[in-house]
Sequence to fold (389 residues):
Amino acid sequence: MRYTYEPEVEAFREEVRQFIKDNLPPEEVRLARGYEGGFKTYQEEYDYTMGFQKKLSDRGWLAMAWPKEYGGGGASHMRQLVYNEEMAYAQAPSGNMGIAWVGPSLMLYGTEEQKTKFIPRITGADDWWCTLYSEPGAGSDLAALQTRATRDGDGWRISGSKTSGGHLADWGWLAARTDPDAPKHKGITMFMVNMKAPGVTVRPLINMSDRHGFNEVFFEDVRIPANRVAGEVSRGASPTAGARDFDRPGIQSCAGGPRSVERLTRLAKEHPELVERRPSVRYELADRAIDIAVGTNLAYRVATMQAKGLVPNHEASASKLFGSEMGQRIALTGMHLLGTLGQLKDGTKHQIIDQATAYTSSVSGTVAAGTSEIQRGIIATRGLGLPRG
Fold:
């Protein structure tokens, strides 16, 4: 299927592509420097990411989906779709939690003081935010969280632990239980936490790819002033839910796939001996190309619904579910293509590409941002009308 866009949208796509070409290191340079597999230092990753986002901010693209009165671009859904698609394809560091969650929540629930203090620094790429929802015993089920916030004079004391990518963050968007006697989905309050505050400890979690992108974050009587409460106390996670109204087309989970399949197809042509050892990989590559077409259709359906003023629900879950599982299938096809060479990494002799890291990294795709089980439940109940339990 061939998609067509309004001339203005097509022109914008070319503008985004040119911007990426001018401001993002070439693929071979990023691979050599570890931009796709890990940075040499935290500061290098911080400078690379925030430096690129500063450039996006200068063009008014960083908060493209936000209303203009808050420093956003007020972009149409299709324009945002094209932007997300091109950034994801290039694996550009264009997204952050401040744009996705914090800013939109503050627009809806924040005080004027909070909006004035934080929103300009978010749109200006001055602060790195992390989300502090998940805990060792509470992932997709936010109602199970145990981190406590107790009154301390005119402020609060936070005690507990979270899992987060907070090692680079300046600020954290934290959900804590403030009323243990309230129903589980209530009694929760959202806080803005200075990640450099006394009592905050960030401990690295090294993943199966031998990379550090996630952490345990401990809070030991961390004091938070009253003006860092987002929304009403013990009203549940309504500021978090409200932020979803600002979500735009979720093409990201599918748009990175074509780049990976193109790379694997190129390898198959450059190294015919790999295909000779496993001829069936040709069919796998064809299947992955079909996957991409299906995933793109699902993501475009979400964008089309939003452009018509509709609210995608199970449709968005279907797109996310298919996209994350497609990423795992693509990574597995790469392992099949490379065979035992696919196990080599970190510049090992005879290594062709670091497919081992791509393969192990793909596992988290079906867990992060809502597990596949959660997505299937949404599709079953809200999409197919099946009964719960």
Q: What stands out?
A: Residues 331 and 358 are 6 Å apart (CA to CA). The radius of gyration is 22 Å. The longest helix spans residues 281-307. The chain has a mean pLDDT of 85.
